[in-house]
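Thread title: Can someone regenerate the structure for this chain?

I was given the following input by a collaborator and told the matching structure tokens would be attached. They weren't. Posting the sequence so someone can regenerate them.
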Amino acid sequence: MYVEHSYEKRGPLPQWQSSCKHLFCPCYPEDGYDLANIDSKSLLLSMKKLQQPDGSQFRTPVTVTLGVFFLSAAPGVLFLSAAPEMAGVGSAVRRIYLAVYNWIVFAGWAQVLYYTILALWESGHEDVYGAVERPLQFAQTAAIMEILHGLVGLVRSPVSATLPQIGSRLFLTWGILWSFPEIRSNILVTSLVISWSITEIIRYSFFGMKEIFGFAPSWLLWLRYSTFMVLYPTGISSEVGLIFAALPHMMASQRYCLRLPNKWNFSYDYSYTSILALAVYIPGSPHMFKYMLSQCKKALSKSKTV
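Best answer:
Regenerated them for you:
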């Protein structure tokens, strides 16, 4: 078994290192440790009990490598961690996955913007939704993965900020635009998809470049943290307007509603859910705008410092 150890060599062995030598194995640290027959619980207990002459815990870290794992001890801390080789492989896999994910979704939003411009040029805003429906549904639904990324720690974005934004967009994509064809010719659909697509093209290309190259160009950084000042208000106002426009059709069609009497003795009105969603926009929109503004100041000030 390969064993690696590290000690500071500054004159005679301190008392805690002498204790370590005898507790772990009957050999001097430079010779390496044969831990094949050492009980793991005894090893952990021994490391916890190591003390300096004054009775305090030792300050010099002790690291013992067992195969591909590190058993480490520090002041009052004991943990088992993967070896650097394993961590390096995991980091590379993470970066490749996130790069592929970001560029695939980027391509989806680029299609949305392209087909929007094409539809506006050829026929007008009434036909925009029909031209972008499939790529819009794909690109926006793929954003569900971002919630999972935050939950498992693949990215540092807080789920509390990601969840409401993605949730509201999914509600618009599937619960409004897909569910109520009557509003698809509304001009707010055009302002919505333009605001969304430009925002996401910038965002996904920014993160895609960071995952591949480790950095993004300064102009892309500026776009990432500045364009929201225009695109966020236009996107939010379009979302709110489309929900309002869909309310009469919800009430008339009774789609997704459950009326009494029924075997569950329960009633549900989809229009109430939409009204509740509108109510959430009142405190939620300013909160998100302030959050993005703080992120903008932090990112741009950091770039100036660099």
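Strands lie at 62-66, 69-74, 77-82.
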